[in-house]
Design brief:
This protein has 2 domains: 1-92, no CATH class; 94-143. The protein contains 5 helices and no strands. The chain has helices spanning 3-26, 32-56, 65-90, 95-116, 124-142. The longest helix is centred in the middle third of the chain and has 26 residues, at 65-90. The chain starts with a helix and ends with a helix.
């Protein structure tokens, strides 16, 4: 993995953790539906700035039908993540339990889809990692 990919990955996990933390802080202080709407509206701002930056930098903006449909699916999926996390926290779940369990199960599901749908390889180390993930979930839940 390149250095820039590592930097971007660090930014992604910091932002993901921040999103979960702020979502928990908002639970009980705003209706889940209104909080999700505010999230969706504000999520447009960084994306619009990024597109404008690329446009003014004369970087090409590529689009295909498949890419647009997949991007729509991403938007729907992330919005539904916020809906379900909001409802999870609004119904009293602890951030320290719900967030890691949901994220870890999501990682296992996404990686399984990579294997089953995209034909990515399975190794014994991958299987061991999945087993460790489930062990970690057990320890988180049963603390």
């Amino acid at each position: 993995m390149s250095t820039s990919a590592i930097v971007y990955a660090i930014g992604a996990f910091i932002c993901l953790a921040s999103a979960d933390f702020f979502l928990k802080l908002s639970a009980g202080r705003i209706s889940s539906s209104l909080g999700t709407l505010i999230y969706a509206i504000t999520a447009v701002v960084p994306a619009a700035i990024w597109v404008a930056w690329q446009k003014f930098s004369n970087e090409p903006l590529q689009i295909t039908r498949e890419g647009a449909l997949a991007s729509i699916a991403v938007g729907i999926s992330f919005s539904l993540v916020v809906v379900f996390l909001s409802l999870t926290f609004a119904n009293g779940a602890n951030l320290s339990i719900a967030s890691p369990v949901i994220r870890l199960l999501g990682i296992v599901l996404a990686s399984s889809l990579g294997i089953l749908v995209l034909g990515e390889t399975v190794t014994w180390r991958y299987a061991f990692g999945v087993a460790l993930t489930f062990a970690g979930i057990y320890f988180i839940v049963t603390r």
